[in-house]
Structures are given as C-alpha cells and as structure tokens.
Specification:
about 475 residues; alpha/beta; five-stranded parallel beta sheet; 16 strands; globular
Length: about 475
C-alpha cells in the first residue's frame, strides 16, 4: 500500500503540480482546496503525511494543523509557506510541524522533506496501525497502538493523568521502545494538546549548544550569536517540552532546568530579563537515573522533581502481541519503498520473530525488516530470510539480560546464572579472538588466560579455531 499524502492548498495550479509530482514519486495523493474538506476526510482516508498551506480560505493552517494533530498525532505535517526562512522555521516549530517548504516549491527539496518525514514518523505510524481500534475519534484508546497487556498499564496511567496539564512525567525504558510516542500521546490527550509539542535529544548536542537550544540567546551572547534566538522553552509556551535522553544532560544545564521547573522562569543566554513560561516537562531516559544520582552525575533534586509520575515503557519482548503487526507494517512499508513484492510472513518466520528477544526493540525490528526486504525476494518472507537475525542473537541480547539481572529483583522463578556466565565468557572469547585477528596466544593474553585455558573455552563454546 502506497503512503497517502494530503495536499491542502487553495491554489488549483499548486494542487495539480504537487499531485503530479508526488504521484510520480509513487505516492497516493488526495487534494483539498480548503481546510474543512480535508478535516472531514481524516476519518475515512487517514493520511500518512500532509502538505499544508498556511493561508486557506475557510480556516487558517494553524487551525487545520491543530485538528489533524488532535485526531492523528502520528501524522507528519509539512507546512507550505510563502514567508521568509526564519519566520517559517519558527512558525513550523510552534505549530508542531515536521518541516516546511517555501514557495516557489523546489521539487528536489519537496521530495527530500517528504521522504524524511515519512521515515521519521514510521515507528509512530506502525504503532498506530497495529491498534485494533477502528474509530479514530473516539478517545484515548484510539490514540494508542498496542493491544498488549504490558502496554495496558501505561495507557491506564495516561488516561488518569490526561485531565491534568502540569504534572511532570519521567519515561524510563530501553532504547527503541517508543518513549517518544508515549510522550506525544500524553501531550495530545491533555488540555495542552492544542499547543506545541517540542522535543530535543539531550545526547545529540554538546552542552553549550544544548543550553542555547533550550534557553535561547540574545544577540552577542557569544561569538556566533549574530541575532536573538528563542529557545525551546519559550517556543513550547502553553504546550509540552519533551527532553529525550535526559541522563546525558550536563550538571550545569541540570541546575538551570531545575530552576525553570520550580519557578517557571528563565533567562536567555546573555539576557538580563526573566521570562515567564507555562510549559509541561516530560523527560525520558534509557539509563538508570537513580544509579547516576548515587554516582553524583545527576542531581538528586532534579531527579525527584522529574519523577512525579514515573512510567516504565516495556520492551518489545514483553509485548508479544505487537511483534507480528509491527513486522507486517514495516515489511509492507519497505516493500513499497524498494519496489519489492513481499505480501506475507511464513509461520516459521513468525515463530522466529516471536522467539527473538529484541534487545533493540522496535528500532531493531524495523532495521531487520528493512534489511530483509532490501536484500531478499518475496512474496513470502521466510525463516531463511531472517538468518542474519538468528545468527549471534545470544550475544546481542546479553547486555540486556545482564542489566535486568543486576538492576531488578531476582524473578520468583529464578534465573539461569550458569548459562548467563557461559554466554558472557563466550562473548568475551569471541571478541578477544576477533581483536587478535585469530591469534589464540594474543587473544588469551587479552583475557588474562593461558593458551590452554583459552583453547579449552574455544572448544567448549564451539568457536572456530584458526
């Protein structure tokens, strides 16, 4: 199934141009000359991406965007604007749009933004389509995308807090589980849902740049500050700011963030005026913040200020009901993208997907389906196609098993300590052998073993001797 794209613009020539351009790119395109008709079509033909003009005859682009995001928060919206670059960028952030394209439209730029937008929202769209709910406008259940009991508790908490708009929330869980999707769900089902939802990955930026992105700066605040810049806190006023990977935030920035959360006021870098804001903070981490507090790398006062409500998003291996629907979605998506003809997944392959522990969660599943569809031939995805997933799976999920064993209470049924220790030894022997380019003597030395003990483990673990 081809991605569905809405083109909403009051100029017929632009609608026809965009429709022809996008259909040549193998997309299904629906065009609308006003906002009302587009909003009315959302329930019957939900889009995957929307190209939305800011100026419409019956509604503003802002109003249309709010309605789209209210009903379909996973949908990527790209603004089409005649404004200059700076104004358009700020406007797009305030409207919670993915990006913008300026008139006159450049085809290469347009197709690049569309492809990036669809790719960036692929996980959220997959989760949404995995849902068994059919009414898009019925309530919180229709914003979610999982029928698994493991996620039911998450949705129950979201349902309870959806009536409030100020409670700070900490989302914990492994990388790739969809913490950003849960954060967006919390925002959209709250009274702040009509206001901006802005996000930033604290691990992706150096400390000084992160501080500038959050708080903004005045002209001349530092060497490259040639003009005033509004920070995300200011742009997210009345809405929600999502701080992903907050465990990577430097202590100096943590102190400033704490002040904002306590007083809802801050100063831009280089500024002397206090700026009042009304913003909800949702933070996420895949690290053990409590351990970081004990180690002195995360502020204890900020930690407790963040976890007013603490939600742990379960890993994919605890959500078995989601695995096959997500795999089918990604298979279909990449089949369209790469011109393949995969239609179904064999029973043996389904069993392998369910058996895999998914240490990389939804992100790993998506990558595996992309690689499989790209390199193999359909129409049936078989167990043989997943051989790269099966190989060395024990080694890839070992860190997850060790972390679970060390950080959580021992399960009631116990655990296989001997097997885990053997897997750890096997992984280290394999890594040492690779590092030593197959030389057993050097590999043994890397592990502090003599050659006989090393060779014994090679034989014990069935590793190839060179």
């Amino acid at each position: 199934m081809k991605p569905v794209i809405y083109v909403i613009d009051d100029e017929l020539a632009i609608r026809l141009f965009l429709q022809a351009t996008l259909e040549d790119g193998d997309y299904n395109v629906l065009t609308f000359g006003n906002g009302s008709d587009a909003v009315d079509a959302l329930a019957d033909d939900p889009p995957d991406l929307v190209l939305l003009d800011l100026m419409l005859p019956d509604m503003s682009g802002i109003q249309v965007l709010e309605k789209i995001k209210d009903h379909l928060p996973h949908v990527c919206v790209v603004m089409v604007t005649a404004y200059d670059r700076t104004d358009s960028a700020v406007q797009a952030m305030k409207l919670d749009a993915f990006d913008y394209v300026s008139k006159p439209i450049q085809v290469d730029k347009l197709l690049e933004v569309v492809a990036k937008g669809l790719d960036a929202t692929a996980d959220a769209r997959a989760l949404f389509r995995a849902s068994n709910h059919s009414d898009l406008f019925g309530g919180i259940e229709n914003h979610v995308a999982s029928a698994s009991p493991a996620m039911a508790e998450i949705y129950d908490v979201v349902r309870k807090i959806s009536g409030g708009d100020s409670t700070t929330i900490l989302l914990e869980g492994e990388s790739g589980v969809g913490k950003d999707v849960v954060a967006n769900l919390i925002h959209r089902t709250s009274p702040r849902g009509d206001f901006p939802f802005l996000d930033i990955n604290c691990a992706a930026l150096p400390d000084t740049l992160l501080e500038s992105e959050l708080f903004g700066h005045e002209k001349g605040a530092f060497t490259d500050a040639s003009s005033q810049k509004l920070g995300l806190l200011e742009l997210a006023h009345s809405g929600t700011l999502f701080l992903d990977e907050i465990g990577e935030m430097a202590l100096t920035v943590q102190a400033k963030l704490l002040r904002v959360m306590e007083k809802m006021t801050f100063r831009r870098l280089g500024g002397v005026v206090d700026i009042d804001v009304n913003v909800r903070i949702i933070a996420a981490t895949n690290r053990n913040l409590a351990a970081q507090v004990r180690a002195g790398t995360f502020r204890e006062d900020l930690y407790y200020r963040l976890k007013v409500v603490d939600l742990r998003v379960p890993p994919l291996r605890a959500r078995e009901e989601d695995i096959i629907p997500l795999a089918l979605h990604f298979m279909e998506m990449y089949s369209r993208r790469f011109g393949r003809n995969f239609k179904e997944i064999s029973e043996e392959a389904r069993e392998a997907l369910l058996r895999h522990r998914w240490p990389g969660n939804i992100r790993e599943l998506r990558n595996i389906m992309e690689r499989t569809v790209l390199l193999e031939s359909g129409p049936v995805l078989t167990l043989e196609h997943l051989k790269h997933m099966e190989q060395d799976a024990w080694q890839h999920d070992l860190p997850v098993r060790l972390q679970e064993a060390l950080e959580n209470p021992l399960p009631r049924e116990g655990l296989d300590m001997e097997g885990m220790v053997q897997d750890l030894e096997k992984a280290l022997v394999s890594k040492a052998l690779a590092r030593a380019d197959g030389n057993q003597t050097r590999a043994a030395a890397l592990l502090g073993l003599n050659r006989d003990k090393f060779r014994y483990r090679l034989k014990q673990f069935g590793l190839k001797e060179n």
